[in-house]
Fold:
Amino acid sequence: MSPVVLISEKLGIEWLNIFDDEYVYGPTPGIIEVAELLMTQLKPKTVIDLFGGSGAISKLAILRGARRVIYVDKNPEAALLNLRSCKDKIEIIEGDAFTFLNNKVQCDFMVADPPEELISDLFDRLKLIRKSITKAALIWLGPSEKAIEYMKIVGKFRMAVTAKVWGDAFLIIWKPGFSQIIRDVKRRLE
Structure:
């Protein structure tokens, strides 16, 4: 079985987004592994799931104890079906993630899993993301070999590291007081 199918089964994700009548978007092993480890360590009460797709990250957040999750995506059809059982804890917003970020929202933990063509636009908003979190944020940077330039830039930021997991690169940023947790997470991942 494919990793997407296994993760979907584990999280109870039955519907995935299909675009162009053939490409299926679903939870990838890398983002699920990193997000789950971070949520287990940080114990966030509020989570924002940007570019939420199938709703897998939102569902994971509820399973890891989040009290409130905000899911944001332009195409929430699959998430509306997958998150029905959690609807009292998850707010589903159909809309643009960048517009949502401009509303100066706050959360303990944010996960952003943008389409590859929007990674640079999201990367340009790191300061806005940092202002929105009270603990940490996880951002997919793309396949490891394509994310090298982003990874070089991250080295210039304080309280930011990259991790490579399952062939993908991720950026983790955090607020003061969480350095040891993030370093432990990165060590476990690599």
In short: The first helix runs from residue 3 to 11.
